[in-house]
Write a structure and sequence with these properties.
Shape: globular
Radius of gyration: 14 Å
Number of helices: 2
Order of helices and strands: EEHHEEEE
Number of domains: 1
CATH superfamily: Hotdog Thioesterase
Largest sheet: 6 strands, antiparallel
Oligomer: single chain
Strand order of the largest sheet: 1-2-4-5-6-3
Number of strands: 6
CATH class: Alpha Beta
């Protein structure tokens, strides 16, 4: 985990061989929110992409490097004082060099938060 103690995995399940869902809880007292932003904490977009990377690494059981991200749409702000639980729905395709994913992240109530396509390179 690149950002230590930033989130905790609450549940994860494989829906089929190429799709999984993971629910996490963001630690609302994490120091990252002291700077982003002190009186109005917002989960950084780069942290959201890092979570996607780490969840995909766990699911695929290998280290990955971000190659590209496209169609990145942040639909809702993630204020940890209001919403700490996020559900990541990730579908992936794998070849010898890459893992390409389509992600939809939502709040507990189903409200969309982030949609993106990401390509990871295998080391």
């Amino acid at each position: 985990m690149l950002i230590k103690n930033f989130y905790k995995v609450l549940s994860s399940k494989s829906l089929d061989g190429s799709t999984f869902e993971t629910t996490i809880a963001i630690q609302k007292e994490h120091p990252i929110f002291d700077g982003h932003f002190p009186s109005f904490p917002i989960t950084p977009g780069v942290a959201m992409l890092q979570i996607i990377k780490e969840l995909t690494e766990t699911q695929c059981d290998q280290s990955l490097f971000l190659e590209s991200a496209s169609n990145v749409k942040f639909i809702a702000l993630v204020n940890p004082k209001e919403n700490t639980r996020l559900k990541f729905h990730i579908s992936f395709q794998e070849d010898q060099q890459h893992i390409k994913i389509k992600n939809t992240t939502s709040f507990k109530d189903g409200t969309p938060v982030l949609k993106c396509n990401v390509t990871f390179v295998k080391p």
